[in-house]
Write a structure and sequence with these properties.
With 444 residues, this protein is an alpha/beta fold. It is built from twelve helices and 25 strands. It starts with 7 loop residues before the first strand and ends with a helix. The structure holds flavin-adenine dinucleotide. Flavin-adenine dinucleotide binds next to helix 1, strand 2, strand 5, helix 7 and helix 9.
Length: 444
């Protein structure tokens, strides 16, 4: 430990793992006995399983965010991006909002920087695609979809109208299938307010490299999800790759091509690339290898004071047996974080560490309003009951009662007053109309 009065716990990333680990250490040790610092460029934790419902307008964007200021009271918050981890001298370099850098020292570091979209060097992807991991992306997707519907209702050019009304998603895992399911459902429901548009004008395409979608749910439920989407007119292209999307002209490996104004990329995640700028050992998947007690380990055994969990790490899944590892999901991230927090506290107090052990509780997914799939133990559930379970599970898992209540009120209101079909135009240029007014005044 350093010379500082109390041990310094530095948490890199304020997502699932960062938020829950910080709260657990604070709860176990009390703020007088530990100095907790959390670094994140965003002032909130995003509850990602609700992003599809943000995109469909079922939940207000702010309600899926847990404020660091509110929920991590007593912890020091640093708004910035970790750019380098130097474990050899127990420091981390952070780039602050104003471009300056700060060097933070630690006794214990929790690397909880999560994952980022795994993109490929596909022509046009970086310029034309949009990811689906941040709340900003879910909001932008919703607004763009509504802008396209409004624009398409007025344009005369048939090809342009088709382009505006074609929505392409790449990646049929949880995030892609749920996002597409919710947005498609929202668009179909919105069409009654667009008398100039016909349902047949709208096209949704899902491109998936594997021979199935929703692999997390197993064969039967994956097949059900596929049939569900196809029965709604979604074109699902299995065993197909996106080859190019320059200027929104989509070309796929099966020789098909079409124009699509919106392209959502949800084809996998990779560990946060900041790891390449660290002296921490990485395993074959490029992640931090954890021991079951969540200490990071390398060839020479566990590193002193380095902990990790969640999407950036590989954690043994003791409940599934020897040689098995936890899948990267929220269910594990939250529980690993609590165990990690407990173990940091135990390590500071000289107590023995405990291993992470969690038996999978099942999986739930929504494919639009009243449509879902779920697996609980060996029981497979489809349709409305699965959708209810999805909502029930996630609202309980959402951090803080404040957020849970707000989300419940959102749903309650929608149940009695229909969906919210309003989108905010010009969010990216909020000063535009003021500038126009100022410029027109200057000309007089
Ligand atoms: C659309 C979507 C839907 C999902 N649905 C489900 C679901 O239904 N069920 C389920 O179990 N799981 C789901 N998941 C997966 C789940 O959200 C993740 O497994 C979980 O978020 C992992 O937690 P984490 O703390 O490792 O990473 P995150 O929660 O992503 O947190 C990482 C944090 O690090 C911060 N960060 C990143 N880079 C830096 C940097 N350089 N410096 C400082 N901070 C940084 C980020 O801002 C973020 O706050 C979904 C994911 C997505 C994207």
């Amino acid at each position: 430990m350093s010379n500082s009065a109390v041990p310094r716990v530095l948490i890199l990333g304020g997502g699932y793992v960062g938020l829950y680990a910080a709260r657990q250490v604070r709860k176990r040790l009390g703020l007088r006995n530990v100095a907790i610092t959390v670094v994140d460029p965003r002032p909130y934790m995003t509850y990602q399983p609700f992003l599809p419902e943000v995109a469909s307008g079922a939940i207000e964007p702010r309600h899926v965010l847990a404020s660091h200021r509110r929920d991590l009271r007593g912890c020091k918050l640093v708004t910035g991006k970790v750019t380098e981890i130097r474990h050899a001298d127990k420091t981390v370099i952070v780039e602050l909002e104003d471009g300056n850098t700060e060097t933070l020292e630690y006794d214990h570091v929790v690397v909880a920087l999560g994952a980022v979209p795994r993109t490929l060097p596909i022509p046009g992807l970086a310029e034309h695609g949009i990811g689906f991991k941040q709340v900003e992306e879910a909001v932008a997707l919703r607004d763009r979809v509504f802008n396209n519907l409004s624009e398409a209702a007025s344009v005369k050019d048939e090809a342009e109208r088709k382009r505006l009304l074609t929505f392409t998603f790449v990646g049929g895992g949880f995030a892609g299938a749920e996002a597409l399911g919710e947005v498609e459902d929202m668009v179909r429901a919105a069409l009654k307010f667009y008398p100039d548009l016909h349902p047949a004008d709208v096209r949704f395409v899902l491109i998936e490299a594997a021979p199935r979608i929703l692999p997390e749910l197993g064969d039967e439920l994956g097949q059900y999800g596929l049939a569900q989407l196809r029965s709604r007119g979604v074109e699902v292209k299995l065993e197909t790759f996106l080859n190019s999307c320059v200027d929104g002209h989509i070309v796929t490996s099966d020789g098909d091509e079409w124009d699509s104004d919106i392209l959502v990329w949800t084809a996998g995640m990779k560990p946060n690339p900041v790891l390449a700028n660290s002296d921490l050992p990485l395993n074959q998947t490029g992640r931090l290898q954890c021991l079951p007690d969540l200490r990071v380990t390398g060839e020479d055994g566990p590193l002193e004071g380095v902990w990790s969990a969640g999407d950036i790490s590989t954690v043994p899944d003791l409940a599934s047996g020897e040689g098995k590892f936890c899948p990267p999901n929220a269910q594990h991230a939250v529980r690993q974080a609590r165990r990690l927090g407990e173990n940091i506290a135990a390590s500071i107090q000289g107590e023995p560490l405990k291993d992470y052990f969690h038996k999978n509780k099942g999986i739930v997914a929504s494919l639009g309003l009243h449509k879902g799939v779920a697996q609980v133990g060996k029981i497979k559930i489809k349709g409305y009951p699965a959708w209810m379970m999805h909502r029930g599970y996630h609202v309980l898992a959402m951090p803080t009662w404040n957020r849970k209540l707000r989300i419940l009120i959102n749903w309650f209101t929608s149940a009695f007053s229909n969906r919210d079909f309003v989108s905010v135009v010009q969010q990216e240029k909020p000063r535009q109309s003021f500038e126009d007014a100022a410029n027109s005044g200057a000309k007089k």
